[in-house]
Fold this protein.
Amino acid sequence: MNDMSEHSSVYHAFQFCAERFGDNAFLRAPAANTALCSAEGISYTYGETSARVNELIPNYAARGLRKGERVALVFDSRLEVYLHLLALNALGVSIVPLHSLGTNEDLYYMIEHSNCRLAVVAEEHRTRLESLLADLDDCNVVGESDLEGSSGPHPRVPTDPATEAALVYTSGTTGKPKGCMLSNEYFLALGIWYNNLGGICSMDASDRLLTPLPPNHMNALCTSFTAMMLCGGCVVQVDRFHPNTWWQSVREEKATIIHCLGVMIAILLTLPEDKADDFSDQIKFCFGPGPDPRHQAIFEKRFGFPLIDAWAMSETGAGGLTIAHEEPRHVGERCIGKPAESTEYRIVDEKGVDVAAGESGELLVRAKGDKPRRNFFSGYYKDVAATEEGWQGGWWHTGDVVREGPDGSLFFVDRRKNVIRRSGENIAAVEIEAALLQSPQVNNCAVCAVPDEIRGDEVFAFVIPNDSAADAGEIFRHCVEHLTYFKTPGYIAFVDTLPLTASQKVSRGEVKKMAAERVANNDCVDLRKLKKR
């Protein structure tokens, strides 16, 4: 399937696929991840999914939901997210997928901000959500058991590709999360893009895609789910990343494609080597954006399949993403591939001027043709100003710094907000974090810039130590062995935890505030005098 013009919605496309692939496995949750609801795991074929979805639709319709309204789903990484997405999509109702790991403040904010009519929750979260949302008169909390037992015809609600299918909140690393409005077109375009990659990333109805990524983000919700749906494959959704049982799950579930994040790759490489590590006869590829470049070749050699780097944002969807799925992939160089033929791009300096060939700058993207926002998100909910600021000059400003190689491949440098400008040198925070994580004394870390009267910025590192004997000087000397001198931390502070967003990413805004306070209060180890050529 490579043309989405025939499909008006995700539900419409699913019904087409259910008729075509009825007996194929579609949704699977392994037994190890379903203790609260099943001792044997949960599986749905396309036909069984269709039956379950068509039971849910009249239940929702009976509650008076109208096209354009929203329902919050608090199912974490359970398969119910996908079932309820399809049922609500049939009515033109958008979902707001949330995770119970979010703080009460974040969950309340997102449900209130999104104007949800209902919050449908797993039974184990019901008491918490009922208490949390007690003062929201316009949003009722409904347990999954309240939506059982109905079937029959449901109203035909005309939907179209532009209708919102989901409101997904960004991580909020520098402030309050923003709600990205994602249309039916956005979902289908991502699935079709993935299906059409071919080559290393080819997929078909025999594939089983295993992902530990939660469906409150676009990777699982819009990319892997929709891609498998359109090709007749199966989504194997695990509740979270379990390093010690990861490869066991991969084997037992007969996964042929896996999704990861860079940090997961680093953790897997710390596990003891095993003679059964070679998965070359089982796995086609791993879609793993953002790996430490030093890990990519080692991972591929040890486990026997390609680790594919890529770049995307919730905002760009299929309109502006890139993927390094064709040779030369420039393994170990943070190569994110070439933009699709349908994408225009520029690399600009801080004044918006195109940089010279090979120089680093911010990546700007848009769709080719007379619809530059085609297949991008529809905008930030209740924040037209931020949406238009992002689209300044008719290009989406990604905030990410890249450089272009001689063959047209793009190489990721860092988030522009995470670039530390020290004595005229641009330093990527992620590079320093990767070096710190190689130290046996470091369990986790976060790096940011702090103001320096002489050098403009200085490097500040928060470190969660592996034990109480961790020594800042030893950690600094480790960095000297792996980094150019000016990139080494000028300050190190030990902490027990790092501030996280609702999506469990490090809150960069909070980290910067904490670092400034630590320097002002002399509550850190000052290592600046040790930074020498």
Observations:
- The mean pLDDT is 92.
- The two ends are 57 Å apart (CA to CA).
- The longest helix spans residues 46-62.
- Residues 425 and 486 are 8 Å apart (CA to CA).
